[in-house]
Design goal:
The chain has 223 residues and is an alpha+beta fold. It has a domain of 154 residues: NADH Oxidase, CATH 3.40.109.10. 39% of the residues lie in helices and 14% in strands. The chain is built from six helices and six strands, in the order H-H-E-H-H-E-E-E-H-E-H-E. The strands form two sheets. It has a four-stranded antiparallel beta sheet, with helices on both faces. A hairpin with a 2-residue loop joins strand 3 and strand 4. Helix 2 packs across helix 5 and helix 3 runs antiparallel to helix 4. The longest helix is centred in the N-terminal third of the chain and has 21 residues. The protein is globular. The structure holds flavin mononucleotide (FMN). The site of flavin mononucleotide has 12 residues, from helix 4.
């Protein structure tokens, strides 16, 4: 396979790795999940600390329990938001409505998603200081989310859909303690539902890269 062809396949997978929130009831092999976690484990982390732990939930009653907390968190979150009314176009409005409907669908049906993966992040001191004071080297979660995205990309390569979600954090301590995790020691970086999508993978709408890219000085663009 030529390098161009390989790049084309990889880039197509990256660009079509988007939030999937509607899943079929087809089961997912543990071996495939492990392979995706191996990809996650290859992600970069600050000082190579590899801080994350993975908690894979497959048992239906445990999934139902996690899903229940997710649903409560999601609906509280949605109710707290104001509906935007100033859409720039009908396309923008429809896109927002699709995301809201899909998010509600996931919140109301998460118990049926075959696999839920929790990415756990330890509550450890992070950063450093010298004689002049604290050194800001970025937050610890910057060392966890690359693993989450690697996982989602690997899943996409197997034809599996995923969605990086975080609203479960609203009830993190309830969820963690029930799963045998000390919420004093860990927080939830992400909850990723995994399954075969009911729809097709497509490329999501995004701002044009040229509109958000600056060369050498902020504000200097190349078209
Ligand atoms: C940090 C983060 C938190 C997110 N939390 C949630 C969530 O709790 N629930 C949810 O349904 N989607 C969640 N999402 C998914 C986003 O809504 C989604 O990535 C975005 O709308 C783009 O979707 P698209 O790739 O399908 O266009 C989250 C995404 C990120 C990056």
């Amino acid at each position: 396979m030529s390098e161009d062809h390989r790049a084309e396949i990889v880039l197509e997978h990256i660009k079509t790795t988007r939030a999937i929130r509607r899943f079929s009831d087809r089961s997912v092999d543990d071996a495939v999940i492990l392979e995706c976690l191996r990809a996650a484990q290859q992600a970069p982390s600050g000082g190579n600390v590899q801080p994350q732990q993975y908690l894979v939930v497959t048992e239906p009653d445990v999934r139902a329990w996690v899903a229940d907390w997710y649903g409560r968190a999601y609906h509280r979150y949605e109710a707290s938001l104001e509906d935007p009314s100033d859409f720039r176009s009908d396309d923008d409005r429809r896109s927002w409505e699709r995301t809201r409907d899909a998010s509600r669908h996931l919140a109301d049906n998460m118990a049926d998603v075959p696999v839920l993966v929790l990415f756990l992040q330890p509550r450890i001191a992070w950063g450093s200081e010298d004689a002049d004071g604290p050194l800001d080297i970025g937050r610890l979660d910057a060392s966890v989310y690359p693993a989450v995205q690697n996982f989602c990309l690997a899943a996409r390569a197997y034809g599996l859909g995923t969605a990086l979600t975080t609203v479960i954090r609203v009830y993190a301590s309830e969820v963690l303690e029930e799963l045998g995790v000390s919420s004093d020691r860990y927080e939830i970086a992400a909850l990723v539902p995994v399954g075969y999508p009911t729809g097709r993978f497509g490329i999501a709408r995004r701002k044009p890269v040229e509109a958000v890219t600056h060369w050498n000085r902020f504000g200097e663009r190349r078209r």
